[in-house]
Every structure is written in structure tokens, then in C-alpha cells.
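Justification of computing resources. Each target in the renewal requires a structure prediction run like the one illustrated here; the chain below, 191 residues long, is used simply to show the kind of job we budget for.
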Amino acid sequence: MAIALHEFAWNRTAPACVPPHEDVVRVTREERFLEEARPHFRAMYGTALRLTRNPADAEDLVQDTLLRAFRGLAGYTPGTNARAWLFTILHRARLDTVRREARRPVNVELEEADAPVPPPQDLLARGQEDVEAALGQVPEVYRGALLLRDVEEFSYEEIARMLDVPVGTVMSRIHRGRRLLRAALAVGNPA
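Resulting C-alpha cells:
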């Protein structure tokens, strides 16, 4: 069964009620799931839009989430927290997309062969500006730990006391900050 986003999107009305007659109406597992999931479509789209920053990509992400949810319906227990289950799928689908895009090769146009080469000191100065610009793209929570460790050269224990967080959290933030910084530098300086 294909779930068309435009059919269900943003429907705030209550699910259709069972017709009042003496026969027992069997509700399929799929119908029960859709009844539980439908109220969360708007919130899923909002989250997807904040993650992708593009309406078309957000719709694709929600569509992919609903498709994955429907395919994995055997793992869903009716009456449990459908919202948490759907948002888990949404975030995993987004992470898969980000990873897939990161592996995609980047096409770069070659500049003319006779382009002048800047002196080495200009490259070094520009490199510092690139690092500062890339560091500005790293979220504050990671940037603070990263600066304290790599620029100010504090130990992990000292940083943990300064930030009032466990040492493991400091290590995690530094690792993630470095990864984000490398990614920002790679985007700013395609080689």
C-alpha cells in the first residue's frame, strides 16, 4: 500500500469512526497504524523541514519515513507510542540521507591552466581565515570544548570541570566538534 503524503498530510480531523451497527467491523493492522500515525504528520513535516531546510526535501523525508514505517509495520505494536516510533524512523532516514550525500563525489570545474599561483604566505594567511570561518559554523556546544582543548590546551578533566559535564561528554563534544570542523573545511576548500 503506497502512502501518498498529499492524501494524509496535515489532516487534523479525527479518524473515521466505526459505523454504528451490530456487525463487528474488523480494523486491519494497517488501518489502526494510520489512525495512530495521522495526527503526527504535521509535526513530522515540521521537523523534517527544520532538518532539511527545503520543503521538497522535507516532503521526501516524511514520505520515506512513512514508507519505512509501513514496511516495518510488523515491528510496531498497536497502542504503543506511535509518535516516538515515527520520529525515530524520521531521524534515521535523515541520517541515512546525510551519509549517502557525504559519500557522493563532488564535481569541480577545472580552472584555466595558466592561473597564477599565490605566494605561500598568502596561502597560510588564507588558511587561518578559512579555519576561523569553518569554526564559526561549528555549533557552540562543540566549539567551546574544541577551543578549550585544541587552542587553549586544557586537559579533558579541566574542561569537564569548567563546563560542569562528565569527561566522557567532553571527549564526545571534542570528537564531534573536530568532525564538524573537518567537514566545514572540506566544503570551504575543495581540493
